[in-house]
Amino acid sequence: MSTPVVSLKNASIYQGNKVIFSSIDLEVNHGDFIYIIGKTGSGKSSFMRTLYADLPLTQGEGSVVDFDLATLKDDKIPYLRRKLGIVFQDFQLLSDRTVRENMLFVLKATGWSVEAEMQQKIEEVLQKVDLSTIADKMPHQLSGGEQQRVAIARALLNDPELILADEPTGNLDPQTSVEVMEVLRKINANGKTVIMATHDYALLMKYPSKTLKCENNKVFEVVQRSV
Description:
By secondary structure, the chain is an alpha/beta fold.
């Protein structure tokens, strides 16, 4: 049996001295698509931040892509994040660089050095999100949906084991949200594990999958009809 991509056992998440979640028990397996839902302020982002080690795990056990969160040293965090693809609500593209230059920045920062290989990788990930023709455009020349798909492509550059998408459709209209979801579902169908925080219940109904709810300092699985 393969090792879970994410495993939390009796884990508690804190921000400073404030407990956000207590006693989380969770396993996410290779190829899963998991929704994280909950009201604004319920801790969805804190949960996601813990998975990519932006918040330390100080109580309980936790592992993400074979990294032990409880013992993870600061100098090892970049190595964890190279095995993750992180997508944010606000795209976080560098506004003064083209799409290609945004991608090159990430590749060079994570150790790539051969120009031909970098260009080939950029073409490959843009093709996966159906944006092969926009590599030399600036972010402001793209729609919100296109910018988010570029952000997803950027997250795929280092062939991550896990995609963490924190409200990826939060700034998008309903039709564009569907387009972004189609991209994420296609990536998942090709074998990538995806954890997506969202408050968009219409997407949950259209694309049902395992759903975890954040409420009253707990994270628990819910059946689709009761979310």
